[in-house]
Amino acid sequence: MESFRAFLKRKDIVISAKRYGIDALGAMAQGLFCSLLIGTIINTIGSQFHIPFLMNPVATIGGTEYTVGGLASAMSGPAMAVAIGYALHCPPLVLFSLVTVGFASNALGGAGGPLAVLFVAILSAECGKAVSKETRVDILVTPLVTIFIGIALSAWWAPALGSAAMKVGDVIMWATELQPFLMGILVSVLVGVALTLPISSAAICAALGLTGLAGGAAVAGCCAQMVGFAVMSFPENKWGGLISQGIGTSMLQMGNIVRNPRIWIAPIVTSAITGPIATCVFHLRMDGAAVSSGMGTCGLVGQIGVYTGWVNDIAAGTKASVSGFDWLGLILISFVLPAVLTPLINLLVRRAGWVKDGDMKLA
């Protein structure tokens, strides 16, 4: 047993919730952002501003035409897998082999491909690391082991994992349509909390394919956390903190939350308020990429995703136009309500003596 532990340590194979549930999951979201999400944004810019280079096909592969954005989106599987490998500290031959693994697991996982990529890429990467530099023909053995295990697991697991993820996502979206008030609260709070925790709300939403009305509630929860913390902590962190949290991430407050969890009360309560307002009053939907549901105001990706959904719905004929009410809902849910409600709720928390000056100061 000691020799096995020494082997794992030498290979930097750390079997832990942090390594797989935080590091790998967070990296997967970045890979998804740099492929599917960026591709969607490029397509939206091209269609809205009528830019020929972005609208016209630039490549035809297997009879399918791809635009610039389409090519970026098509590489989401390899991008996620390589990002996961990077987070797991894979040596070069393993990292490069994960391109094939990511493509296979994402393709075979269908709409729930991101979840399949997460599991398959982790196992393939760790197996590849285990054999890396253990033989004199490493350049053959390491890619063969990594790719063979990745393809085998993709064929065996990916369809089931993808299907399971989509069924869970479908249940959440169905429940939100059926009970928009209660599910609006639940989805908004849980996804918002996930965004601030050192895990990836974007990857979770992508893995579950969380779109529609539930996606709108998720956007509301994420915005409540990011804008809420940014405005609430403005007296302590000034403009730098406003920008870094408001369009960066509320995860910056995690250290302060550990020291005093009560600073989290105001953003969570705000998300419980804005979630059902999004679902019941404005019927805010995320019909863009599912990963956008868990991004909030980070780079304004959540808002771009909602707008992209509007554009897609108009193109599909399911929506006549983008109304002033649509814009009002998006602006209120994303920016105004979190910026107003969170400081007011925090004022009550401060008066109760639960939060004091300096509790939200960023290092």
Explain what the structure shows:
- The protein is built from 16 helices and 2 strands.
- It has helices at 2-10, 17-48, 52-55, 68-74, 76-87, 92-108, 113-131, 138-178, 180-196, 201-208, 212-232, 234-246, 254-259, 265-281, 301-316, 324-351, and strands at 59-61, 64-66.
- With 363 residues, the protein is mainly α.
- The two termini are 42 Å apart.
- A two-stranded antiparallel ribbon has the order 1-2.
- The model has no long low-confidence stretch (mean pLDDT 92).
- It folds into 2 domains: 2-165, no CATH class; 179-351, no CATH class.
- The protein is globular, with a radius of gyration of 22 Å.
Task: Give short descriptive properties of this protein.
mainly alpha, two-stranded antiparallel ribbon, globular
* Strand runs, count: 2
* Percentage of residues assigned to helices: over 70%
Radius of gyration over all CA atoms, rounded: 22 Å
Beta-strand content bin: under 5%
Low-confidence stretches: none
Distance between the termini: 42 Å
What's a quick, concise take on this entry?
The chain has 363 residues and is an all-alpha fold. 74% of the residues lie in helices and 2% in strands. A two-stranded antiparallel sheet has the order 1-2.
Reconstruct the topology from this structure:
Blueprint: H1 2-10, H2 17-48, H3 52-55, E1 59-61, E2 64-66, H4 68-74, H5 76-87, H6 92-108, H7 113-131, H8 138-178, H9 180-196, H10 201-208, H11 212-232, H12 234-246, H13 254-259, H14 265-281, H15 301-316, H16 324-351
Antiparallel strand pairs: 1-2
Helix pairs in contact: 2-4, 2-5, 2-10, 2-15, 5-6, 5-7, 6-7, 6-8, 7-8, 7-10, 8-9, 8-11, 9-10, 9-11, 9-14, 11-12, 11-14, 11-16, 14-16
